[in-house]
Amino acid sequence: MNISSTIGLVIKLAIIAILGYVAATLFVSGELSVAMMLVVITAAFAIIFFFKRFYSVRFYYPAIAGLLLFTVFPVVYTSYVGFTNYGGANLLTFERIQNYFTSQVAIDKSTEEPFQLFETADGLRLWLPESGLLSAPFKLATPEAVTLQKAQEPKGELLPLKAVVANRELLKLKEFTYDSLSLKTAGLKTVASLQPAYRIIDADGRLESYEGEILTPDHDVGFYRNAEGETLKPGWKTWIGTRNFDRMFNSEGIKEPIVSIFIWTLIFALGSMVGTFAVGITLALILQWRELKGKRLYRILLILPYAVPGFISILVFRGLFNQNFGEINFILEALFDIAPNWNTDPFLAKAMVLIVNIWLGYPYMMLLGMGFLQSIPEDHYKAAAIEGAGPVRQFFSITLPQILPPFVPMLIATFAFNFNNLVLIILLTKGGPDMVGTVVPAGETDILASFTYRIAFSDSSQDFGLAGAISMLMFVVVALIAYFNLAAMRKAAKGTR
Amino acid sequence: MVHSSKNLLIKKCLAHGFLWVFLALILFPFFVTISISLREGNYITGSLIPDRPTLEHWYLALGFEYVRADGTVIEPPFPVLIWLWNSVKIAFFASCGVLAMAATSAYAFSRMQFRGKAALLDTMLLVQMFPAALAIVAIYALFDSIGDITPIFGIDSHWSLVLVYLSGVAMHIWTIKGYFDSIDPALDKAAAIDGATPFQTFRWIFLPLATPILAVVFVLSFIGVIGDYPLASIMLRAEDNLTLAVGARKYLMDNKYMWGDFASAAILSGAPITLLFLIAQKYLVSGLAAGGVKG
Question: What is the largest CA-CA distance in chain A?
Fold first, then answer.
């Protein structure tokens, strides 16, 4: 056995050990689906890398595993989430929510009294003026409980509230005992005996509060309910069937924005595709013209929008298009005395989104177009010129029919890319201007992807369930587009052969 | 002929004129950004050519504090250079991984015979069209649960983000496979006769031959990762941990608009990436034609 194969073996074992460890701990913490997947991936890894039979699989297994883990699994998982109430108010499992409630503490008001903290020569001492109790000297960092006994007010320096505030976390952990009574700080000024706020009373997981109130778990909605039937936050993650889909298709304030956002998403993706194609091809045609000088310079300058990272140029446009103090309105006002409401008018906001996206995307089409145009034989144009066809006629009857077939897969890919062009919308308009009368955050320029992103990750709403349900709708659309793209690529590939 | 050459001249003028007008419109944002980065203060008012040019935003972007003539000291609002470093670091590691995985996979798909190869290739293409943006809920949940146990692969970890970016390989596999397909099969046969294992053939024959396309894939992946917003925005939390794409947004919040500081930071961080792209653009076109849409 030589050195490199030993190193190989060590690396293999290390990878298996790490994956196995993560999977095992995930099992323990109850994340069964993720753990199962990791186990499968680890087992496959072990088999493939230890058996000579699977030699060829070694070359592509990591890529396939990555795709499974971060693309296929998310699609499946997101679809599953669409059938649950997973979200900001229902993040954890039922057991963890039970633990949350039972670990809450309630202050026993009858034992509450103010305290003072003294710094003495022996250490800190707690003084309860009302009951005349003094603690033994203690240090904050030690874990032992401190006993209290009847005594006189201690001599030493009375610590100001500021010192208590600074040490409140350590002080909170400190237990002070007097006979059977156990006291803890109940705030910055008082101590009291603390008791569990809730305890589990039966196998169903019903809870009784220290005041005698009974809470019943309602697994249908994932919340505890009190006697009046009100739900208590936080709730747990639970299967709620098709309720998210009902909300999507039937609920007032959700259905309307989804329909109009869906339509706008299609218009946006189609408009961006056609717009970038038209601008890009026009420029490609001009740059292909033999008599034109300075092509290299033009080409470099024209692809600049594409070379700059998108997130930077989009943010620049966000500033430039600001309707109150952006440079674009500044110039429009000076030249034409108009100041369009790019940020508040739905139509203008959509126009702005399209303008910016065409700016971002035309160089791609131009670069592709320049490549495809070169493959058109010169004779075709000569023949057309002899026939007396003008440039426009030439374009539509010679150029376009010849470059369109190889272009189709790129056009579909562009459509799909823009259909999900979350970055543009989130950075440029954040979906705004807001639609009126909606339950979930929705804006006039929101596309499905940005809408979903905001439902899942905005501060006001964290509704993973609804986001998952909408994502499923998008998966269907994307799958359709992907299918057409594949068909188009096959056709294009046949055409070139 | 005189008439025709005159006609040609007019046409030429028209073409150049059109291009210049178009360029003026297209490049306008760049000029404005440069101008704003030299303008005093973060207020939006001011002429397009700064009256009193100042480098204060540049000092701030580079992480220095700036003392104005009247003695007021301005602290840099954000750690731009740290963000840039984070972005470059994540993009570098992710792209190295993507390159390694894509190259080995492409070799297998190009040269090895195994069952389900064609189906696997098509599936990869389909799967790749599902954008990561749609998967953010699941990816967040996945790393949230892993992070409870191993924080290095939890939320707010650069390594988790690198792992996620590694999955963006399918398009690149196709690109590299296309290139490998064009390599003469006689070369592998010769290597096999000399006793080379498939891996040795890959390592010592295919990789050196494919250097240009590997560079293209690396740059495409690098630029793609640097520009990612949705994944990074949900995976990273602490201000010092952010990537540039996520952090840059903080300059332009609705309640606080730091236009000048943003402009200088944008130029500073955008310029190297832009240059990289321009230098590589000739080679990139072939990679782009294979279907990679830049984000």
Answer: 117
Q: Of B74, B107, B124, which residue sits at a domain end?
A: B74
The yes-or-no verdict on residue B290 having pLDDT over 60 is no
pLDDT > 90 in chain A, percent: 11
Span A42-69, pLDDT tens digits: 888 888 888 888 888 888 888 888 888 8
Residue among B44, B127, B262 minimizing CB distance to A315: B262
Cβ contact, residue pair B133, A306, below 8 Å: no
* pTM for the structure as a whole: 0.80
The CATH number assigned to the domain with range A105-195 reads 2.40.430.10
Handedness of CA B90, B91, B96, B102 (dihedral sign): positive
Whether residue B48 is predicted with pLDDT greater than 80 in this model: the reply is no
Q: Which residues of chain A have pLDDT under 50?
A: 1, 497
For residues B171 and B102, give the distance between their C-alpha atoms in angstroms, rounded to a whole number.
Answer: 9
Q: How many domains does chain B have?
A: 2
Q: Are residues B13 and B32 in the same domain?
A: yes
Is residue B295 a part of any domain in this protein?
Answer: no
Tell me: the pLDDT tens digits for B224-268?
A: 888 888 889 888 988 888 998 888 888 877 777 788 888 888 888
Query: Are B147 and B269 in the same domain?
Result: yes
Task: Assess B244–A contact: CB distance below 8 Å, yes or no.
Answer: yes
As for the ipTM of the complex, it is 0.84
CA–CA dist A159, A440 (Å, integer): 50
Task: State whether residue A223 is helix, strand or coil.
Answer: strand
Chain B nearest C-alpha distance from A314 (Å): 10
Alpha-carbon dihedral sign for residues A130, A135, A137, A139:
negative
What's the DSSP call for residue A293?
A: -
**pLDDT at position B95 over 70:** yes
Measured CA to CA, the distance from residue B246 to residue B227 in angstroms comes to 9
Residue B273 and residue B212 share a domain: yes
We find that the CATH architecture of domain A94-103+197-241 is: Roll (3.10)
CA angle B24, B28, B29 (to 5 degrees): 155
| Boundary residue ending a domain (B74, B106, B121) | B74
pLDDT at residue number A355: 95
Test A60 with B104 for CB contact under 8 angstroms: yes
CB-based contact A63 B169, cutoff 8 Å: yes
A373: its two tokens = 């145009």
CB-CB neighbors (< 8 A) of B50 in chain A: none
- The fold adopted by the segment(s) A250-496 is MetI-like fold (1.10.3720)
Q: Do B107 and A59 touch (CB under 8 A)?
A: yes
Nearest to A114 by CA among A183, A173, A163: A183
